[in-house]
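Q: Sequence in, structure out?
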Amino acid sequence: MAAPKRRHRVEISADPNGPEKIVIHCREVTDDIRRLQAELEGFEFSAVADRVDNTDFTDRVDNAFRTDAADPGNRLSLKLGGQEHLVAPGRILFFESEDGKVAAHTAERIYRTEKKLYELEEELPKYFMRVSKGCVLNLKAVSWLKREFTGPCRVGFAGSDKQAYVSRMYFKPFREKLDEMNSHERRQ
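A: Exactly. Output:
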């Protein structure tokens, strides 16, 4: 006979001056906790609520797990510290290749993938673009850029100190696609 499932307490507190983070306190790290962590890392929270019905939050997380199980293609399987993580493409700032290994950079972490950049280019949403021989960039994550007169263009991201570089050869198509995306977003 299977052990009965325990209901867990969910607490939410808002601190307008604090960092946006989610902390999970548990007795032990189980597969369920790891799945919850992976799912929460894939969420993009646009606001913090002062009061949220805990049941509603739990139902939304459960529904998200079911949605991902039905459509596993909406997450990328990436490795970190010997563990496999499922990460939403929108959370990735850029992919870079160095010494034959490909790293996926989010604002907080650096994951590894076995895929090559050309394979990722084919699979990723259209807002990703190759911007140099060794970099595929999430155009939606770009916060600022600084073009050097004689060298590559530096690109920065909101909420992160990380930077990527757009080579001179890729700069014109990069700029055109970035401008196209920005004008499309303004029209909507």
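Residues 168-187 form the longest helix (20 residues).
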